[in-house]
């Protein structure tokens, strides 16, 4: 089938009643004179462009070792990597649109992973879009000059493309839901706070990412200066741009290891607390304040929000290296101290998990610190927020991962049989749960209501997805109160 948009004709593919169009440029290649510049419109093309295969992905390093078998990723070379993919069942219709923003700590990942295939969404009456954006230094390096937050501005450019072109694929540009996981969830929260994104979406879903992951301009300069030192160049974007891409990627990886090994504010500013060297920067213009502060002040109050996390998110961080089973108790207290959780708070977790190993207690603490409490804070600040928790424990790694970071994705996309997800699900996942979760995401995109009452209603109501999915009322209230004044 051929679809015509502003840039020209697109020839897609048809699989099981779903049309897909892949590798569509939404901005010009960010190379040469356009490197470290805001995204620019793509060039038009003559005739009909082949859109049957995924396009290039943003340069990044693939995971190695155990994580590479759990978290799907792909690297496709090429300069024209600011592209997106569309799935639709009826190009002549006017269906709700969902735009997915991938995770990967802002340094890896792409929207072109087969596990993100949008066929199930299209089957259920949604036009599904997945996008790429600039990662690492190309997306978030800033020394205080030029335009910051280029990676997030790429996301805005993709949403502008959706506004202007999605009707040609049978999508309604007035009913757009953005959703993302991990760094994608943090991106969703950032877009809630950005004036440049106003009016480009109407609903938002943040999976395992909320509004606390942004950094100050001073911290961005500390990160940039250290990156330049590793590369042996002047601390400017121009000097960094002259470095070969593979060398830059290796330097980014070294920088990440240094932050993890020595998380001191004197070295990294608030990056030491956030843990990620490349994050959206509070520059005072593109992003005037942190996303959580913006939402507290009323930003995007008219946008319906669905936000949540998985029960044992941090299991993905600790289990693959076998750092849970033999962890001594003192390490739990040390990690809690770095998270600013007082000793009394650690004891609250220990009492609530009586008999659990120290490593399991730490997983719970880190999950709350990094994911659950930020999600709760954003839900508390937003007048139209719904909260969920995903509580299905994967059998992978003999069950040690639990309901870990990212495990909800094959259920959200209803792609349990995709080979990409076999390492995450252990090759065994209940289709009934995928039916339930996927249906909630679809219902929210259509109506703004996922099927349970808002979190701000009396009782802090949330949906817990599991073998038996049911609502909870202020679940784990003691642990939540242990973080009062923190985060």
Kindly list the characteristics that best describe this protein:
globular; Rossmann fold; 35% helix; 487 residues; 2 domains; 19 helices; alpha/beta
* Overall number of structural domains: 2
Large-scale geometry: globular
State the helical fraction: 25-40%
Query: For the record, what CATH class of the largest domain applies?
Result: Alpha Beta
CATH superfamily of the largest domain: Alpha/Beta hydrolase fold, catalytic domain
Structural class: alpha/beta
Spans of 5+ residues with little confidence (pLDDT < 50)? none
Largest sheet: spatial strand order: 3-4-6-8-7-9-10-13-14-15-16
Contiguous helical run count: 19
Here the CATH topology of the largest domain equals: Rossmann fold
Question: How would you characterize the largest beta sheet?
Answer: 11 strands, mixed
Q: How does CATH name the architecture of the largest domain? A: 3-Layer(aba) Sandwich
> In angstroms, what is the radius of gyration?
21 Å
| Beginning-to-end CA distance, first to last residue | 50 Å
């Amino acid at each position: 089938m051929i679809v015509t948009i502003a840039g020209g004709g697109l020839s897609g593919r048809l699989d099981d009643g779903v049309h897909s169009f892949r590798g569509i440029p939404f901005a010009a290649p960010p190379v040469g004179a356009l490197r470290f510049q805001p995204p620019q419109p793509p060039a038009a093309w003559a005739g009909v462009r082949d859109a049957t295969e995924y396009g290039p992905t943003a340069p990044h390093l693939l995971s190695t070792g155990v994580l590479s078998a759990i978290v799907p990723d792909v690297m496709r070379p090429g300069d024209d990597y600011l592209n997106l993919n569309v799935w639709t069942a009826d190009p002549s219709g006017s269906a709700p649109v969902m735009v997915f923003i991938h995770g990967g700590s802002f340094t890896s990942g792409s929207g072109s992973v087969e596990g993100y295939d949008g066929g199930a969404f299209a089957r259920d009456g949604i036009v599904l879009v997945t996008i790429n954006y600039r990662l690492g230094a190309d997306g978030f390096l800033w020394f205080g000059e030029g335009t910051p937050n280029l990676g997030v501005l790429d996301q805005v450019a993709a949403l502008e493309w959706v506004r202007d072109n999605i009707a040609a694929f049978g999508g309604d540009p007035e009913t757009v839901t953005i959703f993302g996981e991990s760094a994608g969830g943090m991106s969703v929260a950032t877009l809630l706070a950005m004036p440049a994104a106003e009016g480009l979406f109407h609903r938002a879903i943040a999976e395992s990412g909320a509004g606390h992951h942004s950094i100050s301009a001073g911290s961005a300069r500390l990160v940039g200066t250290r990156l330049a030192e590793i590369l042996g160049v002047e601390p400017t974007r121009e000097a960094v741009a002259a470095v070969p891409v593979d060398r830059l990627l290796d330097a980014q990886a070294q920088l990440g290891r240094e932050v993890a090994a020595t998380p001191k504010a004197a070295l990294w500013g608030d990056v030491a607390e956030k843990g990620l060297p490349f994050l959206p920067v509070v520059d005072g213009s593109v992003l005037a304040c942190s996303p959580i502060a913006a939402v507290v002040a009323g930003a995007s109050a008219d946008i319906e929000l669905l936000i949540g996390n998985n029960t044992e998110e941090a299991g993905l961080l600790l289990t693959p290296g076998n750092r849970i089973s033999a962890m001594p108790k003192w390490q739990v207290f040390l990690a809690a101290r770095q998270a600013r959780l007082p000793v009394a708070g650690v004891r609250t977790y220990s009492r609530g998990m009586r008999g659990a190993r120290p490593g399991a207690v730490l997983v719970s603490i880190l999950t709350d610190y990094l994911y659950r409490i930020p999600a709760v804070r954003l839900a508390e600040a937003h007048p139209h927020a719904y909260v969920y928790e995903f509580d299905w424990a994967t059998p992978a790694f003999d069950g040690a991962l639990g309901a870990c970071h990212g495990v909800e994705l094959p259920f959200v996309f209803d792609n349990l049989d995709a080979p990409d997800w076999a390492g995450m699900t252990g090759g065994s996942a209940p289709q009934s749960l995928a039916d339930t979760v996927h249906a909630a995401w679809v219902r929210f995109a259509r109506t703004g209501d996922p099927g349970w009452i808002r979190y701000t209603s009396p009782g802090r109501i949330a949906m817990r997805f599991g073998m038996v999915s049911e609502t909870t009322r202020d679940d784990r209230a003691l642990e939540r109160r242990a973080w009062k004044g923190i985060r």
